[in-house]
Amino acid sequence: MTNPTVAPYGSWKSPITADLIISESIGLGQIVLDGSDIYWLEGRPTEKGRSVIVRHRSDGTLTDMLPQPFGARTKVHEYGGGDYVASNGVVYFSNFSDQRVYRVRAGSTPKAITPDAAYRYADFIMDTRRNRLICVREDHTASSREAVNTLVSLSTEENPDGGRVLVSGNDFYSSPSLSPDGTRLAWLTWNHSNMPWDGTELWVSEVNPDGTLGKSTVVAGGLTESIFQPQWSPNGTLHFISDRTGWWNLYRVRAAQVEPLSPKACEFGVPQWVFGISTYGFASDEQIICWYSEQGGHLARLNTTTGDLLPFAMPYSSIGNVHIANGQVVFTGASATIPGSIVQLDLATDQTRVLKVSSKVTIDASYFSVPQSIEFPTTNGLTAFAYYYAPHNPDFVAPEGERPPLLVFSHGGPTASTSSSFNLHVQFWTSRGFALLDVNYGGSTGYGRAYRERLKGQWGIVDIDDCENGALYLVKQGLADGNRLAIRGGSAGGYTTLGVLTFRDTFRTGASYFGVSDLEGLATDTHKFESRYLDGLIGPYPQRVDLYHQRSPIYAAERLARPIAFFQGLDDKVVPPDQAERMVNVLRAKKVPVAYVAYEGEGHGFRNAANIKHSLESELYFYSKILGFTLPDVKAPPITIENL
Predict the structure, then answer these.
(1) Which band of pLDDT confidence, cut at 50, 70 and 90, is reported for residue 617?
(2) What are phi and psi of 486, to 5 degrees?
(3) Is residue 640 part of a domain?
(4) Which residues contact 18 (CB under 8 A, 6 or more apart)?
(5) Count of domains forming the chain
(6) What is the pLDDT of residue 590?
(7) What is the pTM of this model?
(8) pLDDT of amino acid 295
(9) Which residues span the domain enclosing 332?
(10) What is the distance between the alpha carbons of residues 156 and 131, in angstroms, rounded to a whole number?
């Protein structure tokens, strides 16, 4: 090994390029088990972000179930999830381009079973006794009113009326779950202005022989109790996750009483941003296989008789999509150095087998920066959390005495979290000489309800404080250059980014990906799912419009003085393009360096490989010009930085 080259931070040449990231990586998502067959979703940037259902047979054969141009992706709640289900070799899926439900067998052409109308469908389950699907339907047929959400049944053949309504009347529904004998249906429901992590109700209804619902009762939940993933055990006992103690823990219903299974100050659930999330399942009536988060993610056996929780020994710290059948657990797993993978666990031997890996990258692991979980002091004497990545590249060292530029990541949601799992986008920066801080600011999930509720009424304050204090903590530790601090984020993370750069003077520059600049605009021009989200994060609208203006960067134009790069999808329905364009116009007028890059055909989150590559390289180019370092290995993308 040769001696490393001395070069300034930010200018290191890295083998982790944008081309490598997009050509060698796919997204892995929703898992469905059907007998011995395993299905999962692959998001393929090189196919313009198409989501393809892949079937894995017991002999290892892989088959794409969807021919071009079909893609499984629902738009219910705009964020989707629960895009398909499989039964006896037949797949039923929501097609992205027209939002109709299709039926398909391997090697055949999909056939539509719902009409060409303004309906959207998600969260499918099979009712095999009645040869039908049960799912959430979002009705957009009347443009003069808010979309209507219901639970409906769909024939597996055709549904000219768009489905038979089973449950209606509330603003939102999710998580239909049918008992093993088909006689009872459970589901979740909630109303404005709650989000599902604020409060939901768990209902159960008798199912009549003709498929209609009989007597319905509420089992658990309310305005301040979040219920998650109702599921029936093999013997027909209803289980669910609730945060009634301040932590999402597992419960069951026996003799009309709710019983905790393994009370613990840790999280067994996650926020329901999308449909179809599964963190546990049944190996038997006596054994649950579950994920939980406690100083990292774990997969464990839970004895339903004793409450004992026994973690499996495995290398994955990030685990999701947990499904169990035939003595096998199938899940998505990742760690700081292991890319996201579809993993099969044999419960008889505790041996795992990787079925699919999200990244084919063959870069030597010596180029990867391993995250450190840190706690740091923040406002009001509180503590916040983050993952710190040191700049790292075995081929380079910085000149003596130089401190690295710091890039702070602000995650979306904001009710969400970041993780320490393998992420080439992170390594893209650290291998070039950036220090990186991925912040789980107050309001993030994984730390209990109290931490999550730090953001109640405080969005645009607590998140900004925590991102700023995290950066200043690293500067104080001598791990970052206080004059070269940058921040980036998408969606809600973009709002925090814009807020930091507008209302604080700590950061030199940043990048907003489809970020919110006008909270009032978001409150009045967004989709149904989030249309009252800000009531809890800011205050009731329009009664507290003053707060919406106070915390909106667009209304503080006189303070805008930091160079910002904006990246925006022109088809974004969650944060429309004008949110970025109005900020850009203000910066133009003030002669502050600004770049605006808009992408046709992209919505809320980029899926096209060419656009992912272009935005990543453009962001790096932007920082090189603002922070003052030379790019050795990235050809400057064709972007314009105005007022530079």
Answers:
(1) very high
(2) -130, 155
(3) no
(4) 428, 612, 613, 616, 617, 634
(5) 2
(6) 95
(7) 0.94
(8) 84
(9) 66-357
(10) 6
Q: Is the domain of 287 the same as that of 403?
A: no
Q: Quick one: tokens of 439?
A: 């912040």
C-alpha 546/C-alpha 544 separation (Å) is 5
As given in the structure block, the two tokens for residue 266 are: 């840790």
Nearest of 293, 299, 302 to residue 385 by alpha carbon:
293
Residue 448's DSSP bridge partners are none
Helix (H) or strand (E) holding 584: helix 578-589
Helix (H) or strand (E) holding 43: strand 37-44
User: Does 563 sit behind a cis peptide bond, omega within 30 degrees of 0 on the bond before it?
Assistant: no
Q: What is the pLDDT of residues 44-82, one digit of tens each?
A: 988 988 999 999 999 999 999 999 999 999 999 999 999
Kindly give the pairing relationship between strand 238-242 and strand 227-232. Answer: antiparallel
Largest CA distance in the chain: 78
Single-letter residue type at 255: A
Final residue belonging to a domain, choices 357, 384, 404? 357
pLDDT at 577 over 70: yes
**Which residue stretches of 485-577 are H helix?**
492-503, 519-524, 533-537, 545-550
Q: For residues 115 and 327, what is the distance between their CA atoms, to the nearest angstrom?
A: 39
Choose among 273, 220, 266: nearest CA to 242: 220
Cis peptide before 176 (omega within 30 of 0): no
